[in-house]
UniProtKB/TrEMBL annotation:
<keyword id="KW-0349">Heme</keyword>
<keyword id="KW-0479">Metal-binding</keyword>
<dbReference type="InterPro" id="IPR001505">
    <property type="entry name" value="Copper_CuA"/>
</dbReference>
<dbReference type="InterPro" id="IPR002429">
    <property type="entry name" value="CcO_II-like_C"/>
</dbReference>
<keyword id="KW-0408">Iron</keyword>
<dbReference type="InterPro" id="IPR034236">
    <property type="entry name" value="CuRO_CcO_Caa3_II"/>
</dbReference>
<keyword id="KW-0472">Membrane</keyword>
<dbReference type="InterPro" id="IPR014222">
    <property type="entry name" value="Cyt_c_oxidase_su2"/>
</dbReference>
<keyword id="KW-0249">Electron transport</keyword>
<keyword id="KW-0679">Respiratory chain</keyword>
<comment type="similarity">
    <text>Belongs to the cytochrome c oxidase subunit 2 family.</text>
</comment>
<keyword id="KW-1133">Transmembrane helix</keyword>
<dbReference type="Pfam" id="PF00034">
    <property type="entry name" value="Cytochrom_C"/>
</dbReference>
<dbReference type="InterPro" id="IPR008972">
    <property type="entry name" value="Cupredoxin"/>
</dbReference>
<comment type="function">
    <text>Subunits I and II form the functional core of the enzyme complex. Electrons originating in cytochrome c are transferred via heme a and Cu(A) to the binuclear center formed by heme a3 and Cu(B).</text>
</comment>
<feature type="transmembrane region" description="Helical">
    <location>
        <begin position="61"/>
        <end position="82"/>
    </location>
</feature>
<keyword id="KW-0186">Copper</keyword>
Length: 312
C-alpha cells in the first residue's frame, strides 16, 4: 500500500481538516442522540404504560419534539457549521500560495500560480506544499463535475465546469497524504486518486526552485527515448517542459520520474509499471483516455519508460 493510503477520513493533519472533523463528530453525536430519543419513543409507543403513551401522543410533545426541537437544533448546527468552515473558502489574501487544480476524466491537472494567477509550473496528479502554511487551491473542472478531497488536510469541494471554487489546505508537519475524487464522474472514477506531499519550508523552496529552473530549460535532446516519445504520438497528448512535446490533452509528464504513483494514484511509479501502463493502460484502468500501445516491442517500452523516469 502507498504511503498516505488509504486516506483516513477522521484523522486530521492540519487546522482546516480539524474543523471539518470536529463538525463531523458533532453531527455524529447529534445523530446518535436523536436516534436514541426516537428509539425510546418507539419503545414507549409499543410497550410503555398507557399514561406515558398518552403523553407521548399529546400536542405539547408533538410541537416541542416534532417542530421546535429540530428547528432550533438544526438552525444552531447550520450557523455553527458555517462559522466553523467559512475560512476554508475565504477570498485569496495577499501573498498566499496558490495552486490551480483542474479535474479531468480521470486525472488531475496541477498548475502552481504566481501572484498574478499565471501558471509557472505545471504538473499532474501530485501536489507539493510547505508544511505549516495554508495553500489556496483554485478548483476547476475541464469536463464533468468532480470533487477534490484530501481528508487529512481539508474538507471536500466540488469542481464544476465553468466555475472556480476556492479551498484551503494545510499540513501541520511534513508527510504524504492521499486524496480521492469524491463525486462520481463516470468510468474509472474510483481510480482517480491524488497525492499531496508536504515538505519542510526549506525543502519545499528547493523543490520549487529546481522546477522553475526545469521549466525554463531550453529544448534538450533526449536520445532514442525522446524520438520514440515523438514518433509514437505521445507528444500529441503530453507535455514535457524544455522539449518539443506540448500536448495538453493528457497529464503533463515534465516531472513523471519524480512522481510517487502513475495512473492518478493507483500504482507505484517504477519502470515496470510504466512499461505496463504504456503497453496497455486499458487493462489497468479501463475506459481511461490513453490508447494501448501494443505495437511497441519490449525494448521500445523499456526505452520509453527509461526516458520518462529521467523526467524530474
Amino acid at each position: 500500500m502507498f504511503e498516505g493510503w488509504p486516506p483516513p477520513v477522521l484523522d486530521p493533519a492540519g487546522p482546516y481538516a480539524s474543523s471539518v472533523t470536529l463538525l463531523s463528530w458533532i453531527l455524529f453525536a447529534m445523530g446518535a442522540g436523536v436516534l436514541l430519543v426516537v428509539l425510546a419513543a418507539l419503545w414507549i409507543a409499543l410497550f410503555g404504560r398507557r399514561a406515558l403513551q398518552e403523553k407521548l401522543g399529546g400536542k405539547k410533545v408533538i410541537w416541542i419534539g416534532g417542530l421546535a426541537f429540530p428547528l432550533i437544533v438544526l438552525t444552531a448546527l447550520l450557523v455553527y457549521g458555517l462559522s466553523l468552515t467559512r475560512h476554508l473558502s475565504d477570498d485569496i489574501a495577499g501573498d498566499e500560495m496558490r495552486v490551480r487544480i483542474t479535474g479531468e476524466m480521470w486525472w488531475w491537472r496541477v498548475a502552481y500560480l504566481d501572484e498574478a494567477g499565471n501558471a509557472v509550473i505545471q504538473d499532474a496528479n501530485e501536489l507539493h506544499i510547505p508544511a505549516g502554511q495554508p495553500v489556496v487551491l483554485e478548483l476547476e473542472s475541464g469536463d464533468v463535475i468532480h470533487s477534490f478531497w484530501v481528508p487529512r488536510l481539508s474538507g471536500k469541494l466540488d469542481m464544476i465546469p465553468g466555475r472556480r471554487n476556492l479551498m484551503r489546505i494545510q499540513a501541520d508537519a511534513p508527510g504524504v497524504f492521499g486524496g480521492q475524487c469524491a463525486e462520481f464522474c463516470g468510468g474509472p472514477h474510483a481510480l482517480m486518486g491524488f497525492t499531496v506531499i508536504a515538505h519542510t519550508p526549506a525543502r519545499f523552496a528547493q523543490v520549487m526552485q529546481a522546477r522553475l529552473r526545469r521549466e525554463a530549460t531550453p529544448q534538450v535532446a533526449g536520445g532514442e527515448g525522446a524520438r520514440l516519445f515523438d514518433t509514437a504520438g505521445c507528444s500529441a497528448c503530453h507535455r514535457i517542459a524544455g522539449t518539443g512535446a506540448n500536448g495538453l490533452a493528457g497529464p503533463d509528464l515534465t516531472y513523471m520520474g519524480a512522481r510517487r504513483t502513475i495512473g492518478a494514484g493507483i500504482m507505484p511509479n517504477n519502470r515496470g509499471t510504466l512499461m505496463g501502463w504504456i503497453a496497455n493502460s486499458q487493462a489497468i484502468k479501463p475506459n481511461n483516455r490513453m490508447p494501448p500501445y501494443r505495437v511497441l516491442s519490449s525494448e521500445e517500452l523499456t526505452t520509453l519508460a527509461t526516458y520518462l523516469e529521467a523526467q524530474k
